[in-house]
Amino acid sequence: MKDKIFIRVFACVLALCLAFTIAHAAYAVYAYEHCSIIQFIAKELW
Amino acid sequence: MKSKKLIFQISALALTLIIFFAFNVSMYFMLTRKLSNNFSTATQSKMIDVSLYLPHEKGSDLAKINSSLHLSENLPVLDGAAALVPVYASVIENVYPKGSVTYEGGAFSDDNFYGENFAEDSKMQYKNTVRGYKAIVDGETDILFCAAPSEEQKKYAEEQGVELVYVPIGLEAFVFFVNSNNPVENLTAEQIRGIYAGEYRNWKELGGADRIINPVTRLSGSGSQSAMDSFMKGTPFGRKSLLAIMGASIGFSFRYYMDGIVGSDSVKMLSLNGVYPSAENIQNGTYPITVKFYAIYRADNENENIPVLIDWLLSPEGQELIEKTGYVKIEP
Fold first, then answer.
1. With an 8 Å Cβ cutoff, are B177 and A41 in contact?
2. What per-residue confidence (pLDDT) applies to B51?
C-alpha cells in the first residue's frame, strides 16, 4: 500500500473509531442521568 | 521490503481497531449495560407497570374492600408517585363508578412517551412525583398521592401563590439497597451518611469486599431524593471519584417500591442499625426511618368531594385499604 493511501485509510479508520467511542460515551452519560438505579445496581458484575 | 511495509501497515490498522474495540467492550460491560433508561418503552416497568393497576379492569392487582363510600359526581382527579399508583388506583376501584378512568383512543396503552395514555377527562392520571407536584399546583390534579415535597417543589407552590394541604395517610420505610452479591448486610445511619458525604470510599472500610463504593443518588425533586436529603440532616453530599461508577453501588428507595413493585432478586435491602425493613418492623416502630406519605390538595380547591375522600382515607375503611395495598396504616 502506498504511504498516501495508507495514511488516508488509517485516518478514516481512526475517525470512525473515535466517532463511535464518543457516541458511546455520550450515550452513557445521558443514560446514567436517566437510568433506573435498581437495575443499575442489579446488573453489577461481582 | 514491500511485504514488511505492508505487514506494518496492516498491523497498525489492526492494533487501532483492537484498542478501540477493547475500550468500548470494557465500557459496555462495566457501565453501559447497567444503564436502563426509564423513559423508553422497554424499561417503563422499572418504574411501574401501570397496566397491572387499572381500576375496573379484569385481572388488575388492586386492593378491594367493602367500601361504604361511593362517589358518583364531581369526582376528584387522582394522581401520584409511581410507588403510590396501587394506592390511588385502589381508591378509584373501590369508590369511583365504572367509566371514571378513560384512555385516549379508548384502550390503555403504555407505548407513548413516558408511558400511559390516560385521557384528559380521566379521573386517574399518572405523572409521578416531579410532574405531579407541578400538576397539583397548576390545578390539573385534585389530589396528589406523594411523599413529602422537596424544597424546590415547596418554593414553586409559593411562587405561584398556591397553598397546598398535606394530609398524611400512611407510612412507608426509606430503605438502602445493594447488589445481592455484596456481602454487607447491615449499616448504621452514621455509616450511610459517611458514605454519601465521601468519608468512606471502599466497602473494605465497612467490613465488605475491596471494592470502591458508588453512592448512587436520584433525580432531584423525586420523592426518594427528597427523603434522602432529609436523611442526611444537613450533611453535604461528597464528590465521588470518576472511578466510583465502576465500583459497587449503594442506592435508596422506598420499601414497597423495591419489594412490591419493581422487585429484583439481584438487589437486597440492608438492615439499618441492625433492623431489617420488614412490614412488621415498620409497624412496630423498630425500623428507624419511616416516612409519611400524603394526600395533597390545593387549599382553594372547591371540589366538595375532596374532604369527603380525605376523611374516608383516614377512616378504618381507608386505612384498611392502605394496609391491603401493602403499606402501613398511619393510625394505630
1. yes
2. 81
- Taking an 8 Å cut-off on Cβ atoms, the answer to whether A38 and B267 are in contact is yes
Min distance A24 CA to chain B CA atoms (Å): 8
Burial of A37 (0-12, 13-18, 19+ CB in 10 A): buried
Give yes or no for a contact between B257 and B83, defined as CB atoms under 8 angstroms apart.
yes
Q: What 3-state DSSP class applies to B133?
A: helix
A31 touches chain B (CB under 8 A): yes
The answer on pLDDT for B103 being more than 80 is: yes
The ipTM estimated for the assembled molecules is 0.87
pLDDT tens for residues A2-44? 888 999 999 999 999 999 999 999 988 887 777 777 878 888 8
**Can you say how many angstroms the Cα of residue B73 is from the centroid of all Cα atoms in its chain?**
32
CB atoms inside a 10 Å sphere around CB B199:
13
Please state, rounded to an integer, the average pLDDT across all residues of chain B: 87
Contacts of A42 in chain B (CB under 8 A): 179, 264, 266-267
Nearest to B325, CA basis, from B48, B35, B19: B48
d(CA B289, CA B82): 20
Q: Predicted confidence band at B40 (pLDDT cuts at 50, 70, 90)?
A: very low
Say whether pLDDT at B223 is over 80: no
Residues in chain A within 8 Å Cβ distance of B17:
13, 17
CA–CA min distance A12, chain B (Å) = 10
Q: Which of A24, A38, A42 sits opposite B24 (nearest CB)?
A: A24
State the best of A24, A36, A43, A45 to mutate against chain B, taking most chain B CBs within 10 Å.
A36
Distance, in Å, from the CA atom of B283 to the CA atom of B326, rounded to the nearest integer, reads: 12
**How many angstroms separate the CA atoms of B28 and B213, rounded?**
20
Q: Which candidate from A13, A25, A34 shows the least CB-CB separation from B38?
A: A34
Question: Which pLDDT value is given to residue B332?
Answer: 57
